[in-house]
Amino acid sequence: MTWPDFYLICFFLGFGLSLVALVAGSAHLHLPDLHVHVDAPHLHVPDGGANGAAPVNFGTIAAFLAWFGGTGFLLSRYYGVWFLLALGVATLSGLGGAAVVFWFLAHVLTSREENLDPADYEMVGVLGTINSPVRAGGTGELVFSQAGVRRVSAARSEDGAAIPKGTEVVVTRYEKGIAYVRRWEDLAGPRRSAEDPQ
Predict the structure, then answer these.
(1) I want to staple 136 with a disulfide (CB 3.0 to 4.6 A). Which of 32, 123, 129, 162 is the partner?
(2) Going by C-beta distance under 8 Å and a sequence separation of 6 or more, which residues neighbour residue 169?
(3) Are residues 126 and 64 in the same domain?
(4) What is the pLDDT of residues 156-187, one digit of tens each?
(5) Is 196 among the domain residues?
(6) What is the spatial distance between Cα 95 and Cα 113, in angstroms, rounded to a whole number?
């Protein structure tokens, strides 16, 4: 296998993968017992600038192969460039093509709101305040803050006791839209006064 053949295979592979991503991503290919949907993985990038897109993903790999193969083929076949120089320029070209695709994914197609973490909306352990009193065996209203937003929920006492308005509570379980709560002071334990001996 010659270098131009190697570059040509890389080009066709990258171009083919790009077509597969385009068709699979827009048409959602359905095959018997197989669902093909190609998408960029949603990994967290520590710098926060990428809005959740990973630098190495299906799109950037396909772009790298296509640009690397195309540039390498042209340089080695038609311009007769020395193979190490062609390899270096082709690699830089591939990285440049992958970088353009990554920038497009990170800054145009991906938004911060798209990547939601279910743990941010977990109700168990939420601290809130009773806004409407919970009658014994009845239902009241809980006000709490979650994901930076003030929210409300129906609330019942975990043990069936009445809970007056303004009481701080903790959600112990959440079922069918109702938060079952216990008083925060019951969970925190007895408070020591300044005069109590250690």
Answers:
(1) 162
(2) 127, 128, 129, 130, 142, 155, 163, 181, 182, 183, 184
(3) no
(4) 999 989 999 999 999 999 998 899 999 988 88
(5) no
(6) 28
pLDDT in tens, 65-83: 999 999 999 999 888 888 8
Q: In whole angstroms, what is the distance from residue 128 CA to residue 125 CA?
A: 10
The pair of three-digit structure tokens given for residue 108, joined into one six-digit string: 């145009």
Residue 167 lies in domain: 118-185
Query: How many angstroms separate the Cα of 179 from the Cα of each of 16, 122, 150, 152?
Result: 52, 11, 15, 10
Identify the burial level of 157 via C-beta atoms within 10 angstroms of its C-beta, where 0-12 means exposed, 13-18 middle and 19 or more buried.
buried
CA angle 151, 152, 155 (to 5 degrees): 145
Both tokens of residue 147?
């994901």
Q: Is the pLDDT of residue 197 over 70?
A: no
159 and 126 co-located in one domain? yes
